[in-house]
Every structure is written in C-alpha cells, then in structure tokens.
Design a protein that fits this description.
By secondary structure, this protein is α/β, with parallel strands linked by helices. It is 29% helix and 17% strand.
Length: 739
C-alpha cells in the first residue's frame, strides 16, 4: 500500500504498470464479477471477461455496504500486482437510504442551497457505506414530459439548472473529496440526452449547435466549474455521432472549451451501443472510437479490456490514449485518498448511527414540504384538524413514493399518508380507502407483472370503487391521493399518454359526482395532463415523488403547518399534444399574442391554447401577494454600467407565506433570435401578513449576454424588456436600452 501519492509518484506507478494493467483500470464492472451481487441498472450482456482481467478492473458500480466493500477492497488489493484500490461507484441521485424528493421536485423549491444540503447528507450516508463516487447530478435540460427521466432533472430552464447543478456537486463533494463523508460527483449525461426525439428514451437527439450550446450545455458546464470529478457520456447521438465516440463533443467542447480534466465514463454499455447506432462495425472499432473521443472508463461492456491492448500493439491507436486515461483514473483515486486509505469512510458503526438518523429525516421532510406546488386552491385548504375527511386513492396508504432512482431507499422506511394523518389527527371521523389500484389492466410496467407493483393487495376493483364512493358521500371533504406509479417515471419509462391512470380517473369522476369538495394530492415523476382533475377539484397539490418523509410533509401542508411555496420547474402541458412546451420559446414570425390570437395565420393550434395548463415558475400559497409595477432606476446603460429593477411585494393575505419573485429578460432584437423570456434571477421572500418588502434585481452586462451570431457569449446593444412576477407568464414589464 502506498501513502498519499505525489504527481511524480503517480507517474512512476504508471511507468511500472503493464499495458494490460493500465487498460483494465479503464474497465468498470458490477460487483458480481468480484464476488458481489451488485445492483443491475442497465442491460446485462456477456462481456467475455477473463478472471485475470476482472482482477485488474479499475472500478465497480452498483455495490454498497461498509462490510461488503471493505472485504471486496481488501481481497482485491491483495490480488492486484500494484495493490491499486478499486473505485466504488453508485447511483445516489436523490438520497442514499434517507430519500429526498426527486430532483424535479427539488427544482420546484427554487432553493439550490437546500439541494446542496440534501446532497451532502446523501454523500455522508453513501460514504459510510463504502461508496466513493455517485453518478449524479443528472443535469439534462428537459422539455418533454413524455420522457420518463424528467424526474431526474431540475427542469426546463438553463439558469435554474445551472444553480442546482453547481449546488448538488458542491453538496456531494464539499471543498475536497478526500474529506470525510464526501463523494466524487459525476455530471451527466453529456450531452443533450433530455432532448430525445418525441420523448422516447434513448432516441435520436436533433439539436442545432446553437440550441445545444444556448440551452443544454450550460448546466453541464456549471457542474464542471463547481469541480465535478467525473462526467458521464449520454446514450444519444449528436449531429449523427454517438456521444461516446464524439470527438468534437468530448475533446473540443468538454475537455477543450469547458476545460474538464477529470474522468469521463461511458454510460452503461454505451460504447458497445455505437454498433447498434450504426456508427461502429464491431466492438473493436467501438474501442477505437471511444478511446479517441477520450472516454476513460468503459461501463460494463468489456470492450476496452478485450481490444485496447492489441489495438495499441498493432499501432491502431497511440498508447498515450491509454496512458492519459489510466492517469486520470489513478488521479481520481489519489484525490479521494484511496492510496492512503482504500476504505475511505466505510464504517459499519457509522452506518448504523448515521443512516436514516432523525436529522436526515427532518431534512427530507423540509425538502419535501418545499418541493410541493399548490396548483389550485378554491378556499378549501388548509384543512382543519378534526374535520370529517375521507382520504381516497391508491396513494392514501402507499409507501412507494421515493421515486424509481432511489435504489438504496426502502419503502419500509416510508410513512404512508394514512399513518401520517393519524399521527397528526387521530379523529375517528377521518377514513381511508384505496378506491382503486394504482394501475389498471391497460398499463404494464416493463419487467413487472400484475400486482407485483401494487402496494395493497388488489381486491375486486368494483368493490373498492363502491367502498370509496360511500366514504366520499359521507365525508365533508375528500382528499384524493392519486398519481403515477413510481415506476412509471425514470429510465426507460417513456409514455405517449401522460394522464393519471384511467382506473384512478374513473374513481375521481365517481367521487366528484357525490362530493364536490375534493382536494387532489398528485404523485408523479413528470408533469401530467391534469385538465380534468384541475377542472373539477377544488384544490390540487403537486407532490412529485416526495421521498422518505413525503407523507408527513404532505400533512404539514394540508393542515397548514407549512404554507406551500413551491414553483414549477417544468411547464404542465395543456395536453400531451402540446409537448414539448416550455416558457423560453422563440417568438416566431407570427406570434399568437393578445390582440392577434384571433388572426387565422398565427402560430397556434385550432383545438387547444398555446399556453400550458400551468406555466414554468407557477405556484400558489395559502396567502396572497401583491407585486407592484416594476421600476428601473434608469432606462439605459452601457456595458460597464448596471440598472436596478425593483418591485414592492406585499403579503395581502392572513397568513405568513413565502413568494418567489422571478426576473426575466427579453432581448427584443438580436443577431440570433432570443427567447420571449429568460429567467435571470429570483428571490424567495417570506412575509408576515401585511408586511411589504422591496425586491431588487441588478441588470448588468452578464444578464444580457448570449451566444451571438459570431459564436461568442456577449451582449448586443439595443432594446430589452425586463419582467418581474410570480411566474413566467408575468406581463409586469419595463423597457431599457443597452447602448
Ligand atoms: C443507467 C443510466 C445512468 C446510470 C448508469 C449506471 O443506464 O443511464 O444514468 O448512472 O446506468 O447505473
């Protein structure tokens, strides 16, 4: 075992290593190849791995547990000719065992600092369980609710995504990944994976370079600038070239322009999949393309292990490609301190004390509360303790609310809504019934059958329905806990229909027939088409997949202990036909704007509005806020000056509450067209009833820069509009000029 390695010592170690040893540092396996069952998160395939190659591997994914990983590491090092330790990597996306809201829910908090705290807790629990690297944050910009992985993103806005990307990286890594309870972060999926055509996972991505750079690349760069140790390639092609073999994207953009000098890992089997893309003739060519693109680690195909040595020896690729990759991998191990202590923070005793501790659960509850978005409330919320309420729906007593990427989280740790309500208000008049299964017979989840995915044993649907209707009739208020199954969002879960499962909608309709005072608590990993629900219910609270403490957080909000403050990080479409829909669109030459929306020849639909059902940045409170007309301290500026925009915000309701004032900019005419609005700042303020505060926003040149026709990020003189409001539909606007 060597101690902390200087760069010179690392260089010497590399010089002592054989080509085989260097190449196999670039090989990542699941623990099953090294005596562990691991967690399979991608397609398995025969990897043609030999024993001697497996014992030279550089890293393992999908394994966790202090005792298990310490044993694996100890046995591995003993067999390794240079005693080089393994890296242990795992998908710790929104929590390890204490599970936080899915990232789309965290985005709704408009509080990146909160996500930084959540990531730090996730890192701590993962680190004591032996994990060194997390495959997070996922920072793909998303606009298409048909794509199931929107749940992993923080939404449709580049500025908001940049803030969360940097915050999550800092939360996972701290100032130094060698510090206790820190793990290395991995920004993914580079690049543009969220733009899969038609929202179909793994599908082709067709983006102009301009759009890629303007909307999709900034959040990766923000994570890299925050110090992310790793980047993961995306499955898709860009410009017809698969990302894992895309030299322009990986060498010129990632390592050149973004100056990323960390480890680049492929996504699961992505190197081999270049064959199926039709980009490589065989595994051997895939090895060449990936190595030339600078992919350092091959996740789970065995291609590097199988072909790189012969390719180097035959002069097909320069050895320096292998040397550079191996060096970056050893550098990461060194930064984590693994040459000094290959077990890092793995500690069985700490696992028992730290994992799921009260402090972590309290943070999970806080994060859940702040992630909820109140979409509608016709004076029915908050509820009163002691009321005669019927909780009806498949989520009324369901533990599966931690999201599909919470692979370590366990539903047994989750409190159900029924349990949480009884904990808070044990009155006998409050009743609970499922009313329907989560899924009807018309929806099949890949790899799951029947009620393997149902929480409660699925009884006769008719009987469940009638029982629920009776309960609804007798109640003063009905709270319906409805939504997607948690496995209906996440990887490989694209949906053409983004409505609540029909079996639940039938239940909802029958309940509304007998009781008009219906509140809907909506569980989903994506924006859904909720026109019917929104039209009939008196209140709608979007709770996403809220995590381990989600139910208690829902009770906090339903009964008013916490006044909801969340804002949509992604538009809720009017219907799936409107998707992709996002606020920061271009005007077009025939904008459908007030006063022109009756013109026939306008960019619009004949059968639905252009506007989403609920726009980006939207969210209500139990109180109300007034926002004054936006005022500017001057009407023009030069590049080295700034303008201060101000609004007065007043709480004109009866409850203390938090509002997020958002500031948007529009560049009215530029060398390339600009979005009708771009979020450039926001401020969350909490006001007592009657209290008023002035919220100001400084417009400097950095807020006006964009990717101009020249390909540079710069501002252009001319007229601008600045908007201030409580969501992206605000028309509270003032003009100014950049001279
Ligand atoms: C999956 C996902 C990726 C994940 C990786 C390892 O296919 O695309 O996000 O980190 O495999 O589990």
């Amino acid at each position: 075992m060597v101690g902390k390695m200087t760069n010179q010592e690392l260089r010497s170690l590399l010089d002592e290593m054989t080509l085989e040893e260097k190449v196999n540092q670039m090989q990542q396996l699941i623990g099953a190849f090294l005596t562990d069952e691991g967690v399979v998160t991608g397609p398995m395939q025969e990897m043609g791995l030999t024993e001697e190659r497996a014992v030279l591997a550089g890293s393992v994914l999908g394994s966790y547990g202090a005792e298990k990983l310490k044993k694996m590491q100890r046995e591995f090092i003993e067999k390794h000719p240079h005693r080089i330790p393994l890296l242990f990597m795992l998908d710790v996306i929104n929590g390890f065992r204490t599970v936080f809201p899915i990232p789309l829910g965290q985005g709704a908090s408009f509080e990146p600092e909160l996500s930084e705290r959540c990531a730090a807790v996730a890192a701590k629990e993962a680190a004591v369980s032996g994990v060194h690297v997390t495959f997070a944050p996922m920072v793909d910009l998303v606009r298409d609710a048909r794509w199931g992985r929107v749940m992993e993103s923080t939404g449709e806005d580049p500025y908001l995504n940049c803030l969360f990307s940097a915050a999550m990286v800092k939360g996972f890594q701290g100032e130094d990944i060698k510090e206790p309870y820190r793990v290395a972060a991995c920004v993914k999926h580079f690049g543009g994976y969220g733009a899969a055509t038609a929202g179909r996972d793994y599908n082709t991505v067709e983006l102009s370079e301009h759009t890629l750079r303007e909307f999709y690349l900034p959040s990766y760069k923000a994570g890299i600038d925050a110090g992310a140790a790793m980047v993961m390639t995306a499955f898709n092609t860009l410009g017809g070239v698969p990302c894992s073999g895309n030299k322009w994207l990986m060498r010129d953009v990632l390592r050149g322009e973004m100056e990323f000098d960390g480890v680049l890992i492929s996504d699961w089997a992505a190197i081999e999949e270049m064959i199926y893309h039709g980009y490589c003739a065989d595994r051997r060519e895939a090895a060449v393309r990936a190595a030339e693109a600078g992919v350092d680690i091959d996740m789970m195909t065995g291609i590097y292990s199988e072909h790189l040595c012969s390719l180097v020896r035959e002069g097909k690729i320069p050895q320096k490609l292998v040397d550079e990759a191996a060096a970056r991998i050893l550098e990461l191990k060194n930064k984590l301190g693994l040459f000094e202590n290959p077990y890092k923070d793995a500690d069985e005793k700490a696992e028992k004390e730290i994992i799921l501790c009260e402090e972590h659960k309290e943070l999970a509850r806080e994060a859940a509360r702040k992630s909820f978005v109140l979409l509608k409330n016709e004076d029915i919320l908050p509820l009163e303790k002691g009321s005669k309420i019927a909780y009806i729906g498949p989520y009324a007593n369901n533990r599966h609310m931690i999201g599909s990427w919470s692979i370590i989280g366990e539903s047994k740790d989750v409190t159900t809504l029924q349990e949480a309500v009884k904990e808070y208000d044990g009155n006998a008049q409050t009743v609970f019934c499922a009313g329907s299964p989560v899924l009807g017979d018309n929806i099949k989840l890949e790899g799951f059958v029947g009620n393997e995915v149902e929480e409660a044993p699925v009884r006769d649907c008719g009987q469940m329905l009638e029982e629920a209707v009776c309960a609804a009739k007798a109640a003063d208020i009905v709270v319906m806990a409805l939504g997607e199954h948690y496995l209906q969002s996440g990887e490989a879960t694209s949906h053409a229909n983004i409505q609540v499962p029909e079996v639940q909608m039938e239940l909802f309709r029958r309940v509304c027939e007998v009781n008009e005072r219906v509140v809907v608590v909506l569980f989903s990993g994506r924006p859904l088409d909720i026109r019917e629900i929104s039209g009939k219910a008196k209140a709608v609270l979007q709770v996403w997949m809220p995590g381990t403490e989600g139910a208690r957080a829902i009770v906090d909000v339903l009964y008013g202990a916490y006044n909801p403050s969340g804002k949509l990080p992604m538009s809720f479409p009017y219907c799936v036909g409107q998707v992709p829909v996002h606020y920061n669109e271009y005007s077009t030459g025939r904008p459908c704007v007030p006063g022109k929306d009756k013109d026939r020849f306008r960019s619009k639909y004949l059968d639905i509005p252009n506007a989403p059902l609920y726009p980006f940045g939207y969210g209500l409170s139990y109180t109300r806020f007034s926002v004054s007309k936006i005022a500017l301290d001057k009407e023009c500026m030069t590049r080295d000056e700034s303008i201060r925009a101000e609004v007065k915000v007043k709480n004109i309701g009866e409850r203390k509450g938090t509002e997020t004032i958002q500031f948007y900019i529009r560049d009215v005419a530029a060398s390339v067209v600009r979005p009708v609005k771009e979020l450039k700042g926001f401020c969350k303020i909490t006001l007592e009833p009657g209290e008023e505060q002035t919220v100001s926003f400084t417009i400097d040149d950095s807020k006006l820069q964009f990717l101009t026709e020249s390909g540079r990020w710069e501002s252009e003189a001319g007229k601008f509009e600045v908007f201030a409001g409580t969501d992206s539909s605000t028309v509270n606007c003032a003009e100014f000029k950049l001279n």
